[in-house]
Amino acid sequence: MKQFEGIKFIAFDLDGTLLDSVPDLAEAADKAMQALGRDRVTVEQVTRWIGNGADILIGRALSQSLELDPELDPALHQEARALFDRFYDEGGHKKSHLYAGVKETLAAFHQANIPMAIVTNKPAQFVPHLLEQHGISEFFVDVIGGDTFPLKKPDPFALHWLMEKHQLAACEMLMIGDSRNDILAAQAATCRVVGLTYGYNYGQPISASNPDVVLDQFSQLIDVVKLAC
User: Fold this and answer.
1) Of the CATH numbers 1.20.1070, 1.10.150, 3.30.70, 1.20.120, which one belongs to the domain with range 22-91?
2) Which whole number is the average pLDDT over 186-199?
3) Cα separation of 204 and 41, whole Å?
4) Would the annotation count 178 as a binding residue?
5) Confidence check: pLDDT of 3 > 80
6) Residue 136 banded pLDDT, cuts 50, 70, 90
7) CATH topology (fold) of 9-18+99-224
8) What 8-state DSSP symbol labels residue 211?
9) Active site annotated at which positions (predicted)?
10) Does 182 show up as a binding residue in the annotation?
């Protein structure tokens, strides 16, 4: 297995990488569609639709397709997004859970004094509570949501921002994610990137995006990132 040396900072995606959040997202999206008298959505559909932020997810739910309906009413879209946010918040994220090995692996990196960040397309308002709820908030020095900056993944803006803030060369940054948005953002930032096979990637294998390393289990990151003694 390929091993990276000289990694000084690790950025992680959230949904589909650290956290299996589809059940809560699907429930909120389905309730929003029901409230508007639209076609209901399933967990299977939402699993294919997430990854580009809440606005796109709700657009896909209204369109019943991965491709947004070009005639989608902006006012309806806005109303649906507000309903989704309300239902997602009210649900308390009780069905979401960390993937196997996540907490232990993050703790090992933290113990090795490797600073870490969250770089997600999820709206920033929901992220701190989720990290606290699952007992991993202490591991991250930066938390970047999909609306923290004007641009989100696959744009590399957030990764460039982290590299500038922490004075990192691109080869010292590692991005971990489960979707092509994560891989494309890292490749555009010219940093190293690991793709995880178990997350959400529009029904496509993560290997198709050509990450540097493909892993089936989160805990395998320990074998990929060479920790300083």
Assistant:
1) 1.10.150
2) 97
3) 20
4) yes
5) yes
6) very high
7) Rossmann fold (3.40.50)
8) -
9) 13
10) no
Residue 15 assigned to a binding site:
yes
What pLDDT digit, counting tens, does each position of 63-79 carry?
Answer: 999 999 999 999 999 99
Q: Where are the domains of the chain?
A: 9-18+99-224, 22-91
pTM of the model: 0.90
